[in-house]
Amino acid sequence: MGQFTLEFAPCIPPANALQFAAVPWDSALFGFPFVELRCGDAPPDRVAAELPGWLADYAPDESCLVYTRIDPLNVPLSAALAACGFFHVEATLDLSFRLREAKLAAEWRTDMLKLDLAGEDDLPAIRSLARTAFTADRLHLDPHLSSEIADQRYVNWIDNAYAAGEMLFTYKDRRSGKLLGFYHARESAPGQVDLALAALDRAYQRVGIGPMLYRDVFTACIERGYETAVTRIALQNTDVLNLYMGFGVRLSRVLNTLHWFRA
């Protein structure tokens, strides 16, 4: 994970179940502090009692966004956070599966499509697609945030992935060389790959190319020695969710993402 690993500290030292970490890349991009909050096993009554003071004291003279992810079945914690001013922005689904067990339809033919690792010459087209492909993630759904800056976040994502030497795949039409889509995957543990980010040009969606892109990426990961894969999908992304269900992948966890924003 390297440069994108967060360092968590207690909100109220020396020991507290509430932990926070500044998110430097989003803070720099949006121009004000972004913070991830982890509630751990903090009792809801303590969250309601202790969190407002910490929120008021954290960078009090700046705009600030704090986000947290919680189990949707933990209604008391959700209520305590809502009382502190947190609001729901999205639900996400965590998936974990063995790559060789995914149902890869043999009849899918990709003779006219080519999966390859991105080169520097591919970056302009990938950046262009990344800038326009994502509109329903939590940063685009939060009305307090700039959609244009949220778009740029995915351009930065691509640049960082390429600079780090991670797997950034292109999917092209063999005849024209046109970029149809891309897929970013990165190692998250020995033998495990995080299927982090994918996009397909809107002109080629829902015509059967998406499943072939995913199938070919799964195969490429197997060839590189990965046995298992993990990913996180926003619940509103039904096209991708249905695609994974078609591969026979099962859900492993559901989380609600909540934001707190001070203007």
Structure description:
This protein is of the alpha+beta class and about 260 residues long. The protein folds into 2 domains: about 1-85, no CATH class; about 95-255, 3-Layer(aba) Sandwich (Aminopeptidase), CATH 3.40.630. It is about 35% helix and about 30% strand. Helix 4 (about 125-135) runs antiparallel to helix 6. The longest helix has 17 residues, at about 145-165. The relative contact order is 0.19.
Please specify the SSE layout and strand pairing.
Elements: E1 9-10, E2 19-22, H1 24-30, E3 34-38, H2 44-57, E4 64-70, H3 75-83, E5 87-98, E6 113-117, H4 123-133, H5 138-141, H6 147-163, E7 167-173, E8 179-189, E9 192-200, H7 209-223, E10 228-234, H8 238-246, E11 251-262
